[in-house]
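Reply to dn_fold:

You asked what the input looked like. This is it:
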Amino acid sequence: MFKSLFAAALALCLAGSALAQTAPTVRIRGTVAALSGQTLTVNGRDGQKVEIALADTLTVVTVKRVDLASIAAGSYIGTATRTGADGKPQAIEVLVFPEAMRGAGEGHYAWDLEPGSMMTNGNIDGVTAAAVGRDLTVSYKGEKITVHVPADVPVVTFAPAEKADLKVGAPVFLTATKAADGHMTAARVTVGKDGVAPPM
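and this is what came back:
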């Protein structure tokens, strides 16, 4: 059932990519202000309140912590990075994808977690212990990049959740499709639970 959940989530991601060719998408980060029927209201991190219409086929997931030391060659991850003081990529967060989502979002591209951040989704080819943390060699579409992951960076993976977990005050991350009239819809929401917030 767990594998089926993420296979369905991956299908939604792929469908969303196709839809994005005709309608722009917006990443929304914040906390739940209200949930009324199929309308989710979020207090965005920019201080703005946003209303999102939730799909009838809504998928809700949460995240749980993963030990950095458990990431090994063959893992498929996504990591947001900033440029470190040495000019090399340094992780802001790491998401270890379930095997059913291998290949999701593969590539290296601009991200909006913070100004100038990048996102790299790919396979772990190698792991090297650093003085503090780990250095991960990530391969994607024939390219490779080495990312330093400090020991205090959040490392998470997905876990099942329910619509009932979208409680007032809960931290959320989602990608919504924005229509020409400003109306936003979403088919997937990642919600924080048990003190673990979506770090993406």
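The longest helix spans residues 2-19.
Hope that clears it up.
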